[in-house]
Design brief:
The protein has 1014 residues and is an alpha/beta fold. Helix content is 56%, strand content 7%. The protein contains 38 helices and 21 strands.
């Protein structure tokens, strides 16, 4: 009883500590990436991106009610939910560690020293994981990974409870196994990662129920993989697959109403389960009875996905993929829109299309046709799948992508020389696997959590960015170059965390001790460690240049290692008990371990995990919307210029008159359908193309064919009519019939009076309005989204303002080749009938009145200038656009003679993004130049001096590297020299001769340094 009370009390103490830490450091509102979408869909129970997370949505919706009607607190409460479930994970980790530790003691009657040793192990291991980098990050935002970790933790703990109880009550303890199956079913509605705990649970069952043998051990491994495969590849998708088959059969073949097949299938499934349970019980087949119950409980948990169908049928504003029935749900769950990557056999990046057999048919796509009362084939997917050259395929392919930038990286990581068309050898394939996928994408993350972290900058293999750091000079210098005389920005990076390998060493001690004392349970933890770590690496088969760090995917593996960190305390205690009383060594080792492991981890990690006070994602989202006039149409592209905007509209009800159109989704028929509908104050897009012409498999792409037409420039109306025509003359046969477009040149007629009257163009700019906007579509393929944009422009006729977010891209294709007719109004470009030659970095004209009001008066910036607010790399990337906007506004004001106002803009830019918060970079050169133009020489010099000090400091550091290391950082060295040179040229250009001479001398010293090995 004493053990139980202390174990419970200290477990809940670890929960309170973790919850306090996570609550104090969590983001108070939405954050970037998927969080805005999750919060928005949870708040109103809408349908997010595949494969959905209905369990998460239901629980988040529950937590959102504690905002008590204050919509500005909804995100806070959902973030708090992540903090709460993260703290529960720590609670179950504590109890898991103490359970393992108690078993290793080998006695039920514990001495005082043994009790203290067990509890010390639990505290150190649980708190070490509390402050681990990746798990701490996930605890502070409304994303699925915190809850996913909770399900992994409680499933593993429940397996230990079964193991413990089985000794007392035998098969009656199987209630814990049924709880596990239900939790697994529920966890599918959060994330599939939790299934990877299954092999560990199966081995726990084997060790308890059967006598150990080599044969039994191997068979258990095979069985555990089969169970995992049955659930992952069989039960989860095939239930929905057969549901769809029966539904189509009942509707299409028998002629019954929609959903009749679904009802029949569910009824038969329930009947089979009931019959199977009765038979197994009557026949005394307890294992079969338990197995059927287990499958039933998985299905009960899995039934949370019915929420998606129910809410999709309600046609919510966010309804991704529109999974309204069993037929469409399968494609949603299979994530078909994301494509697939070869896993165990397939093509390499060098593979071309097999010319003898270029295509294979795919699975037909069925959609509901209300008028016909049937499911009809929308896309038969004839010639849908590319067949690749057999000679460029192989076993376990790790290198596959169509993108040249990925191919170059494959070659670099694998050490491949020569043409991209040459097939990599299997050894080169494995070299990439070990160097990039295991080394860079797993072991690096592992070391972040248990050794230390170099900085929070994603480096894609650079020894200057994103590596792991021990804090032990000779070890770090061998891997990362000199660690003395670090530039200030590197030394003071919030993400630079030194753990001195202490968590790693303690975990390795615990691992060794666990195998020494309890091989069976050590193997169970090892399986959890491997399946939630390296197995994920194999399955994901990640390509290089990932858009963000992916460490959050491996927190289950780090959880397993934290168990060994805890057991490491017991190992040291047991070793030292011969030199002092057991309870004294237990207290001493625990205290020292708490200080040296979680203590150091907490101190080092606090600054880069503390998101309190940061409102950047929310405020930037509002700035995007406030860049737009009333009833605008705003095109976005990526996660970070879409999901936060969804959040502020759906949750806070902010600027719902602006219709957000995500270009990445606009190639899908379901999204186009949704864009036609009105939601809140936002009117649907004025489109004329009917669904039958853009449904999947129809007009997915149009091809350019130069047929030498008489009129080379068509109006958008002519092009729209041509694209929507089903006449044979608009088609070209290439495997199947494709629409083609005979010209790339289009024009958009302009009604000058209308565009002035509705505010598209200011009256003072009326003289610049063109009679028609000449638009050259510069690609040989027109995607569905481009056809929709043509239709929109044709039907809109300048009635509603059209905008493109400034973060869509940096090429004309990203902006559908319209960028010569843009006006920069903030964080969005307005389409205007005024031509301004675009170039990278300076797209669109500027109306200073509009841009000044937005940038200087209307927009808020999420406290990013506050010293105590941490800006991670995602935030810092967006500041580049903001700096550029301030600079361009100041440039326009000064050129127009409003110097005082221009200087005010420049001062605000520096005030908002000072060097110590947002390191000066190339975007500050125009700021310095504008200060020169405004006759503010001292301010110009201050900017230049800060920049040159930075580049000189960087170069002096780089010059300490040996030749091989300098080769790795060549681009960084060249960039520093190039930017330094640019500052010198700038000073000379504005006749600041004396100062420029001094800069030139400093620059020359760097270039002529004997240590420079470029």
């Amino acid at each position: 009883m004493k053990y139980s009370k202390i174990n419970n009390a200290l477990g809940w103490l670890s929960f309170i500590i973790a919850l306090s830490v996570y609550t104090l450091t969590m983001e108070p509102t939405t954050s970037f990436w998927d969080c805005g979408e999750y919060i928005a869909t949870a708040f109103k129970l809408q349908v997010g991106h595949p494969p959905g997370a209905p369990t998460f949505l239901l629980l988040a919706n529950f937590f959102s009610n504690f905002a008590f009607g204050d919509v500005t607190k909804v995100a806070y409460m959902i973030n708090f939910m992540s903090a709460f479930f993260s703290a529960l994970t720590i609670l179950f980790l504590f109890w898991t560690i103490t359970a393992f530790a108690k078993r290793m003691m080998g006695t039920s009657e514990l001495t005082k020293g043994q009790l203290l040793s067990i509890m010390g192990s639990g505290l150190v291991g649980a708190l070490a994981y509390t402050f681990s980098d990746s798990f701490w990050f996930s605890s502070g935002e409304g994303e699925v990974y915190a809850m996913s970790s909770f399900f992994t933790a409680i499933v593993f703990w429940a397996a230990l409870k079964w193991d413990e109880e089985y000794d007392r009550v035998g098969d009656q303890a199987n209630r814990w196994l049924l709880l596990i199956t239900y939790l697994i079913g529920l966890s599918i509605g959060v994330h599939m990662l939790n299934l990877l705990a299954i092999p560990a649970v199966v081995y726990m069952y084997y060790f308890k129920k059967y006598k150990r043998s080599q044969k039994g051990f191997i068979i258990t491994g095979i069985v555990s993989i089969l169970i995992l495969g049955f659930i992952f590849f069989g039960l989860i998708p095939q239930i929905v697959n057969w549901l769809g088959i029966v539904e189509r059969t009942f509707v299409n073949t028998i002629g019954l109403p929609f959903n009749s097949g679904t009802i029949f299938f569910i009824a038969v499934l329930v009947g089979l389960i009931v019959y199977g349970l009765k038979w197994a019980k009557g026949a005394g087949r307890s294992i079969i009875h338990t197995a059927i119950l287990g499958i039933t409980f998985i299905l009960i948990g899995y039934s949370s996905f019915a929420v998606l169908i129910i809410r999709s049928n309600a046609n919510t504003p966010i309804d991704e993929n529109n999974p309204e029935d069993a037929v469409s749900l399968l494609a949603y769950l299979n994530r078909e829109q994301y494509g697939s990557t070869p896993l165990m056999y397939g093509q390499y990046y060098s593979a071309g299309q097999d010319q003898r057999n270029p295509y294979t048919d795919g699975t037909p796509v069925y959609v509901k046709d209300e008028k016909a009362g049937k499911y009809v084939v929308s896309d038969n997917r004839k010639n849908h799948i590319v067949n690749f050259e057999k000679k460029h395929q192989g076993v376990f392919p790790r290198m596959w992508s169509r993108e040249d930038r990925h191919k170059r990286e494959y070659k670099s990581w694998a050490g491949i020389k020569g043409s991209m068309k040459k097939k990599p050898s299997f050894s080169q394939n494995l070299r990439y696997f070990f160097r990039y996928q295991i080394g860079h994408m797993y072991l690096r993350y592992f070391m972040w959590n248990f050794a230390g972290r170099q900085n929070d900058i994603q480096g894609h293999g650079s020894i200057l960015k994103g590596g792991w750091l021990s804090g032990i000079p000779f070890l770090d210098e061998w891997r990362l170059g000199p660690q003395d005389n670090l530039p200030e920005a590197m030394a003071n990076n919030a993400g630079r965390n030194h753990f001195y390998l202490l968590p790693l060493l303690l975990g390795l001690i615990g691992l060794y001790f666990h195998y020494q004392k309890d091989k069976d349970n050590a193997w169970v933890v090892t399986l959890l460690f491997l399946f939630t770590g390296l197995a994920i690496i194999v399955y994901l088969n990640q390509y290089p240049l990932q858009p963000r760090e992916r460490d959050y995917a491996f927190v289950g593996s780090f959880y397993a290692f934290a168990i060994w960190i805890g057991l490491g305390v017991m190992a040291i205690t047991e070793k030292l008990r011969n030199y002092a009383p057991h309870h004294v060594t237990a207290i001493g080792v625990t205290t020292l371990s708490l200080l040296l492991v979680p203590g150091i981890m907490a101190c080092e990690g606090w600054d880069d995990h503390n998101r309190s006070g940061r409102y950047t994602a929310r405020d930037f989202a509002k700035a995007y919307l406030d860049s737009c006039d009333k009833n605008a149409i705003l095109f976005t592209m990526g996660d970070n210029d879409t999901f936060p905007l969804w959040y502020v509209q759906e949750v806070e009800g902010y600027r719902t008159d602006v219709r957000i159109v995500n270009l990445s989704l606009l190639n899908t028929d379901w999204y186009i359908d949704q864009m036609k509908s009105d939601f809140y104050d936002g009117k649907g897009l004025p489109l004329s193309m009917p669904h039958k012409l853009y449904r999947q498999g129809t007009r997915d792409v149009a091809l350019f064919q130069d047929v030498n037409i008489k009129d080379k420039r068509w109006t958008v109306s002519q092009m729209n009519d041509w694209i929507q025509s089903d006449l044979p003359r608009t088609k070209v046969k290439m495997g199947k019939d494709y629409v083609f477009y005979p010209t790339k040149k289009m024009s958009i007629p302009v009604d000058a009076a209308k565009v002035i009257a509705n505010g598209t163009v200011s009256p003072e700019d009326a003289h610049m309005i063109l009679p028609s906007l000449n638009w050259n579509f510069g690609a040989n393929q027109m995607e569905k989204k481009h056809m929709i944009i043509i239709d929109l422009i044709d039907q809109n006729k300048w009635e509603r303002p059209i905008y493109f977010s400034i973060t869509i891209g940096n090429s004309p294709h990203s902006y559908s080749y319209l960028w010569n007719y843009f006006q920069l109004d903030g964080l969005a470009y307005k389409l205007v009938p005024i031509r301004t030659k675009a170039e990278a970095g300076r797209i669109g004209r500027i109306n200073t009145d509009i841009l000044y009001e937005n940038m200087m008066e209307k927009f808020t910036w999420g406290n990013m200038e506050a010293d105590e607010v941490y800006l991670d790399e995602t935030n810092l990337r967006l500041t580049m656009n903001i700096r550029n906007n301030f600079s361009r506004l100041a440039d326009e004001l000064i050129n127009n003679g409003d110097t005082a106002k221009g200087v005010k803009v420049l001062d605000r830019c520096i005030e908002l993004m000072p060097h110590h918060k947002v390191q000066y970079n190339f975007f500050m050169l125009p700021v310095a130049e504008n200060y020169y133009v405004a006759q503010e020489k001292e301010k110009a010099r201050q900017v230049i001096e800060t920049m040159t000090d930075l580049y000189e400091e960087n170069m002096n550091y780089y010059l300490q590297f040996d030749e091989e290391q300098q080769a790795n950082i060549m681009s960084d060295m060249q960039r520093s020299l190039q930017f330094f040179s640019s500052t010198v040229k700038l000073a000379y250009a504005y006749d600041d001769i004396e100062y420029a001479d001094a800069l030139a001398k400093r620059f020359q010293n760097l270039v002529e340094s004997p240590d420079l090995k470029l």
